[in-house]
Write a structure and sequence with these properties.
This protein has 17 helices and 20 strands. By secondary structure, the chain is α/β, with parallel strands linked by helices. It has one domain: Alpha-Beta Barrel (TIM Barrel). The N and C termini lie far apart (47 Å).
Length: 485
């Protein structure tokens, strides 16, 4: 039996959804994009163009939910399936869009550069329990107008896994779409085997900017999957109660679903988000707070009630270093997320309120993911009945170390962590060098960087990606791209 966890009853979910409908159909949403407003006008929705305001209709929301796919899959650059976003399947992906990186040598948080990004991609390509990559770091050594496309370019060039990505500008979408077409070959092939998921974020409370709403439309036109990342802050830009925040999150996410499905019915999506409580003491948005995690797991239940695959920013930490707090918050988050059945769990590697990335933390989190994935497999009998013969053997042999039953099921029942996690006794730990967790994590990072094997993406395709990126850079005065080691 798969273990699960729930925070909301069906009646409460229905009431939250009903309240979200009422907000959309009474108060409406601000949408600062003329093209999107025209889409609503074309569908007979009440629009105040001068005020950039839309009053929704219940039947439009219901129609959008009906056309939204109940699940979808992701595929790597070679067309192999990697992620099945259905039911209670869970997949982990690193946190994304960090403006800083934790430097292992100096223990200081600094701006990342291209070498940091490449090392990250080399590492994530070899982490077994991280199903997809993300555009995790924003390199500061390229022009800001190409930072979105440059991250996707490096990810597709060095790693075969699909990518969770996004863009902060309207113009960047075109080149990022072209990268994917270069890999897949045709629009039809890209639609059949999605390579990326684009994060699209409404602005709380109840607003869509010009850029983010256009991203939703652009992705829908090419059937590129999106994840809606509503970010209400409980007690600040949302009601202080968890239920109130869930109502707002539901309304904002439903509005995105409608934009997407009106543009192109059937566009795949993840019912996601990155909400948080607001810590009034420090004016921060703690992603490691238990209440934040409860909101994530709860809106996942709402998404599943609506029949949609889900996503959440969880399994991350607000700590500034790779320390006990980082393990505490990331471990609890990963466990709750998996038990809740969140389909795409975004967070491994991330620190400092979603602003800093640590490659060392990523390899530690990979071990957390491994244990959590074992957890959700649950407990099932494996030739344990009748039990009498096994115990007769135990009493006779005084152990079961080499028993046929042990040898058959040892690796299936027990998982063994990698070198980052130390299970040796104290004497053996001392013999092994007395390395602490952070040191072991860095040694594993170095090992993975050194053992990296280039992506098997066709060399001709890699050349096309490079040419596209170079031309995009030239548009903004970036006459040459940083060296790639």
């Amino acid at each position: 039996m798969r273990p699960t966890i729930e925070f909301l009853g069906k009646n409460l979910i229905q009431q939250i959804v009903s309240e979200a409908y009422q907000i959309l159909c009474t108060l409406g949403i601000e949408i600062h994009n003329k093209n999107v407003l025209e889409i609503f006008c074309d569908h007979g929705v009440e629009v105040d163009v001068d005020k950039n305001h839309v009053i929704f209709k219940e039947d439009i929301i219901q129609k959008a939910l009906k056309s939204a796919p109940k699940s979808f899959k992701l595929y790597d650059v070679n067309g192999n399936e990697t992620n099945d976003f259905s039911g209670y399947n869970v997949h982990f992906t690193p946190g994304s869009t960090s403006i800083n990186v934790l430097d292992y040598k100096t223990k200081q948080i600094r701006k990342p550069v291209t070498d940091d990004y490449i090392n990250y991609v080399k590492v994530v390509s070899q982490l077994e329990h991280i199903a997809s990559q993300s555009t995790a770091l924003i390199p500061a050594d390229v022009h800001e107008n190409i930072s979105d496309s440059y991250r996707l370019f490096l990810s597709l060039l060095y790693c075969e896994k699909p990518v969770v990505t996004g863009t902060f500008t309207i113009d960047s979408f075109e080149i990022m779409k072209d990268f994917q077409l270069a890999v897949r070959g045709t629009e039809k092939a890209l639609k059949e085997k999605p390579l990326t998921v684009f994060s699209c974020c409404p602005t709380s409370p109840l607003k869509w900017s010009d850029v983010t709403s256009q991203n939703v439309v652009d992705c829908a036109r090419y059937s590129i999957p999106v994840e809606f990342i509503s970010m209400p802050l409980a007690g600040f830009m949302a009601p202080v109660t968890l239920v109130g925040t869930l109502i707002q999150h539901t309304a904002e996410t439903l509005s995105g679903i409608v934009i997407s499905q009106l543009t192109n019915p059937g566009t795949p999506m993840l019912y996601g988000g990155s909400p948080a409580i607001f810590d009034v003491r420090f004016e921060t948005t703690p992603m490691g707070a238990i209440e934040t995690m409860m909101i994530d797991c709860a809106y996942n239940e709402i998404g599943k009630y609506l029949g949609l695959p889900t996503q959440a920013y969880i399994a991350l930490s607000d700590a500034k270093q790779l320390n006990a707090q980082a393990g505490l918050e990331s471990g609890i988050g990963a466990t709750l997320a998996a038990l809740a059945g969140i389909n795409n769990i975004s967070g491994p590697g991330m620190l400092d309120f979603e602003s800093c990335f640590s490659i060392e933390k990523l390899v530690v989190d990979n071990e957390i993911c491994k244990q959590v994935l074992r957890l959700v497999k649950g407990i099932e009998p494996k030739e344990d009945f009748p039990a009498l013969p096994i115990f007769e053997e135990l009493l006779k042999e005084k152990h079961l170390l080499i028993s046929e039953h042990t040898r058959k099921y040892l690796r299936e029942e027990h998982i063994f962590p990698g070198p980052v996690i130390n299970r040796a006794n104290r004497a053996r730990w001392k013999e092994m060098g007395e390395f602490i967790l952070e040191e072991r994590a860095h040694m594993e990072v170095e090992e993975l960087v050194n053992s990296y094997k280039p992506s098997t993406l066709a060399e001709d395709t890699k050349k096309v990606l490079i040419n596209l990126m170079e031309k995009e850079g030239e548009k903004y005065g970036q006459t040459s791209l940083p060296d790639r080691h």
